[in-house]
Amino acid sequence: MSFDGIVVHALVHELKNRLIGGRITKIHQPYPADLLFQIRAGSTNYKLLISANLSFPRIYLTDETYTNPQEPPMFTMLLRKYIEGGIIQKIEQVALERIIHIDLQARDELGDLKTLRLVVEIMGRHSNIILMDAERNMILDGIHHVTPSISTYRQVLPGRPYVAPPAQEKLNPLETDRNTFYAALSFNEGKLAKQLVDRFQGISPLVAEEILYRAGLPTRENLWHAFHQLFQEIKDHQYAPNIVTGKKSYFSVIELTHIEGQKERFASVSECLQQYFQTKAADDLHRQTVQDLLRMLTTERNKNIKKLEKLKATIADAAKAEQFKVWGELITAYQFMIKQGDQVALLPNYYEENEPLLEIPLDPLLTPNENAQTYFKKYNKAKNSIKAVDEQMERTTAEIAYLDEIITQIELADPKSLEEIREELVEQGYLRDRKRARSEKKKKAATPQIERFISSEGYTIYVGKNHTQNDYLTKRLAKNSDTWLHTKDIPGSHVVIAGEGFGEQTLKEAAMLAAYYSKGRYSSSVPVDYTLIRHVHKPSGSKPGFVIYDNQKTLYVTPDEEIIKGLKN
Fold this sequence. Notes:
It is elongated and about 110 Å long. The strands form six sheets. A six-stranded antiparallel beta sheet has the order 15-16-18-17-19-22. A five-stranded antiparallel beta sheet has the order 5-6-7-8-9. Strands 1-2-3-4 form a four-stranded antiparallel beta sheet. The chain is α+β, with helices and mostly antiparallel strands. 40% of the residues lie in helices and 21% in strands.
């Protein structure tokens, strides 16, 4: 990532021109590490996004729309208490580092004016957003807490003094003259790009490579000329926000002449940053959400696997019920042969002729009759437990199958499908934020959006991507005469061919879609069942997406991504 000190310098200049004197009217925290400030400056309303996301920390003005949580997080509540309604007095960059100080004037609970400071540290995995009392240099809180166990150098905790990140002892290139520049670099060492990064503030490897490229032959004079010219432009605030997309995508506020690719220029730094980050941040959030859900569901699945093993052990123990009954009857019949204190009874088994004496363990503290009654109680308990355990095993097995299905759906989900899956998990009790999920669900369209493909013969094929879509597709959208497909004994999507009269090619392509959107995506010869919708039934009270079917046939297909893409087009 190239969110370097030069980008921060340009952005601070832009924010100064637009936000100084502005009033913070609303504060939201749409995601755990992201803050959104609505600011009224002059006659314009602005939205300032500040993120301490550990993968994509960033700050810029945005016009994106965010969904805010029903219940604001604690850090949001603290910011609203101290700085909502406050006036932005000053926005400064610390030297040419990736640290921004936003000073605000706001009234406290007694109505007195106080100066507060929002510290924005754009520093990779150490990024943070900290609210502090500037007059006392005391931290009020930070979006990420840093405890003594994490850092002995500085802690970010309420009530602690604010300590800046450790100084890197680099030169400020905006204040560097020719002689200082020459003294800072060793041309005999080589690796000049790395030296530029290591010796000067705000220079990322991307900028260092650009300086070397502009210098051409890297003599001391050429390198100084390229360096000086670049930072003179920065001093004069002559920026060129742009994104260059080649093998990778890069952004900067200077012209990136050393990178080949498609170049897109922007009128402002914020527009450039928003364009670059909105997709990457959304992808990162999607990936993180997927990982969190998979971790939670895998843990839940493992619990059910262990539960099933215990239930099987209980069934194995319960299988001894008949043995307990026989032991109890033999002790009763031959108790005259037993005396209290015996640990074992050797008794003839009248159920099995010509067999040796049966060895029955005894409790020496009990009478023969009490030992018999103990075995009768074990017999009755084991016999009664078998039915209950069978029911639990059935439920647990169904739970594991459900979790396998939904884990597969999450692994294949796009952001839209993932949100529907989250809502389902809330409704099923796996996630706790029911209030938020239900509130969002009311705003969503009542009809799920089912992905549609066209076979090479021109027939429409529908694919459900989660249980919500599967239930709607199979029980509401499809007609009785349509053909339904699903991977055989493999978690996957419901697939429906709309209409009749299609040929083998359409059937094969639909089967390939069923295999592709299943846990068998990367397998060969995946078995796919197909039958008419009229033969597919959803049992009353069953979990979302669960169906039973009959009159099916099975064909085997190997998923081909290129064919799938052709059907989508």
